[in-house]
Design brief:
Layout (H helix, E strand, L loop, with lengths): L2 H32 L6 H29 L2 H28 L26
Length: 125
């Protein structure tokens, strides 16, 4: 592969990775805020942060076991787990949104309308 092609490929990979990281961070925080009951936002964010810490603690040993210990089948297992996680996340979030108080149908039971994070509260007069 020519040098210019390798450099171009590397730069494209950096951009794709950066955009993916930004989408992941924004989506993760939005989900953790939007699904948390108003009185328990701090607890939900704590669990969210603990999940990231747990991934950083267990991730390296899991990757070493799968990718180095198992070789090619380990890479296939890792790819399948990541693909499955990506496919399951959107339906899981939709399910959690439907079950959240204030979702469509919950107003019948007297629940308040869902709060919208990242939007300013209306001005009081």
């Amino acid at each position: 592969m020519p040098t210019w092609a390798a450099v171009t490929l590397l730069l494209v990979a950096v951009v794709v990775h950066t955009v993916g990281e930004l989408w992941h961070a924004a989506g993760g925080f939005e989900i953790s805020f939007a699904l948390a009951p108003e009185h328990a936002t701090g607890q939900y964010l704590g669990v969210f942060g603990m999940g990231a810490g747990l991934a950083e603690a267990l991730g390296p040993s899991l990757l070493i076991t799968l990718c180095i210990g198992w070789g090619q089948p380990g890479w296939c297992v890792l790819g399948a787990v990541l693909a499955l996680s990506g496919l399951v996340a959107p339906p899981a979030v939709r399910w959690a949104q439907r079950r959240r108080p204030g979702a469509a149908g919950a107003a019948v039971h007297g629940a308040a309308a869902p709060r919208l994070p990242c939007r300013p509260a209306p001005a009081r007069r």
